[in-house]
Structures are given as structure tokens and as C-alpha cells.
Amino acid sequence: MPYVLVGALALLAAAAFGARRAVRKGGEGAPTIRDTDSRGILEADEKELAAMLARIEAVEEPEPVMGAMCYEPVAMPQVAEYVCPVCGEKTVYDGSQARLVEYELPEARRIMSEMTEVTDLDLVLDESPFCAACAPETDSMPGMILRVRYDGGSEASNVVTVTDLRMLRGLLRGRLFYLTFNDAQRPLKPHVPRLRELLGLPAEEQS
Fold this sequence. Notes:
37% helix; 16% strand; 5 helices; alpha+beta; disordered N terminus
């Protein structure tokens, strides 16, 4: 009987230790870097966003967490057709550009939709470089352009990747990490300079 009790206590201790590790890794109960109203909407301006980034730099970054390992390789498309949401014209891409149109652009749109649900920040994904009719001067590989507009009239514009948008989503959700394509968690702290660039904020917080 004493051995059973000791074994049960050991299991409880191990479970508690695992729970503490989960919190440190950014799971439920992890500290956040933003204040929200009852709807969870972030009323963001330059000052608030700069403060959130400063908090990320001030705290210890969470440990990375591995994501799902069961993803099967996806066959690369040889050709992809882009339909412009503005003018309706079609542009055909091949090679690496086809992958961008077929996979990364839809993922970028989904992430943008999620970000607009958690913040009132004016975010726009400009796809015009993909349309041969809207941007006939584009002779290189097109890119997605993120435009950030503030109430005061200032604006930031950057060519972005899906990873950039995932990092920004993590920030706007008040997390210390962002989720990769397979839901792995990666700390935001090393990417604060890039986030400042995306948001049009000074390279270093002004005192």
C-alpha cells in the first residue's frame, strides 16, 4: 500500500511539473503583452504597438515548441491562375510564382482575415502586383504588399511573406510567440526589428 501511495504522488508531481513547463512555453495561462476590452479587440496605435514590442524585448522569450510532424509533402503546382479581385482579369504564373499564387497568397488572405478580427488597426493586403492588368510594369516576381494605416495619417508599406504575417498575427493576439505552418511556436523576440519595420515604427523605441 505505501508503494502505491508513493507512486501516485510521483505521478501528480510529474503532472504539475509538466503543467508549469507548458505555461512557460506559451500555452494557456502564459503572460500576454496587450490589454483588450471585453470583445478582445485591440485598439492599436503607434504608441500601443511600440509598447507591446518593448514588452516582448523586456521579458524572457518562451522556449520553442515543436509542431505537427505528420504533414505529407505537397506537390508543387506547375501552373497557377491568378484572378484579380479588383478588375477580374486573369494572369497565369508558372514555376515558383505558381506556388506563391496557389498556396501562399490564400494563406496570407486567411491570416489577414484573422488579424482584422482581433484589432481595429487598418491593415490591407495589396495584391495588385500579381495582376498583369493592374500592374503591367511589374516584370519581376510579384510580391504581396502589406499596408498599415494609422488614424493620424501615417502609413507603412512593405513587401511581405507569409511568415511576416504570421509574426504580426502573433503580436496582435498579444502573444510572445508566433505559429508556423505546422503550429510550431517560435518566439517573437528575435523578430522585433522586422515587426517594427512592418508597422512603420522607429527602429528603436523613442524615449
